[in-house]
Amino acid sequence: MSLITDLIETLAGPWAAMSGLQRTVIACKAFVDGSFLVLPPILFTRQAMTRRSLLAMPILITAYTLSDLAVFFSIAKSADPTQCYIALGLLAYGITFFFWAQYTIKKTTALSAFFSSDAPEKLITTGPWALVRNPNYSAYLATYLAGFILTSSSNHPDHQHPFFTSHAGGITLSSFLVAFTVFYQAIREEEAKFAVSKLRGQYETYKKQVWMLLPLTNVFGR
């Protein structure tokens, strides 16, 4: 019981110091990150999951957790209204593209886990895939980037908090880089599978038209 009381007291201080806008950001980020952590394992096609798929999950969960703790404990002093609105925009992008992607594939095929061993059987180019080749990974990275933006000025001279506050910017940046590394490697391996599949020609054409992680189509000659 004392442990729960101590936890509540630990969280109550930073929460009380937040503005209404900052609390809105925290609530939205908790919802978005919670959706990203809970839903993908349920939606994945488990038959093709590999040991690397299973190893990547705790790495990403740890990165999400550390990033969110850093944001929670530092946002009161590290994030001004501009940073909060940018973060809300990124969170809105992330959750919109994530659920849009799930809606698009619902009647076509199940999601494959990253680093899965299955061969691609269909190329999806509708819905969010018409704007970005990897809408799920793009959505995940958007929330990591939001965390870094919220803590990028966490070296505020008034900060006299423990580890998660004084090092918040470094924690969220490290979390973003770890997630980017995992997702980028997964993307490269998925593209390699398309390159040796019956969908190779279609995918090469699609690849020239749509960007990997940014929602830009036929921009700058692509």
Automatic annotation (TrEMBL):
Highest taxon of the lineage: Eukaryota
Pfam families: PEMT
Keywords, sorted A to Z: Endoplasmic reticulum, Lipid biosynthesis, Lipid metabolism, Membrane, Methyltransferase, Phospholipid biosynthesis, Phospholipid metabolism, S-adenosyl-L-methionine, Transferase, Transmembrane, Transmembrane helix
Membrane topology: Multi-pass membrane protein
One Gene Ontology term from the biological process aspect of the record: phosphatidylcholine biosynthetic process
Localization per record: Endomembrane system
Keyword Zinc recorded: no
Chief subcellular location: membrane
UniProt cross-references to InterPro entries, sorted A to Z: Phopholipid_MeTrfase
Transmembrane segments: 54-73, 85-105, 167-187
A GO cellular-component term linked to this record: endomembrane system
Molecular function via GO: methyltransferase activity
Protein name, entry field: Protein-S-isoprenylcysteine O-methyltransferase
Organism: Testicularia cyperi
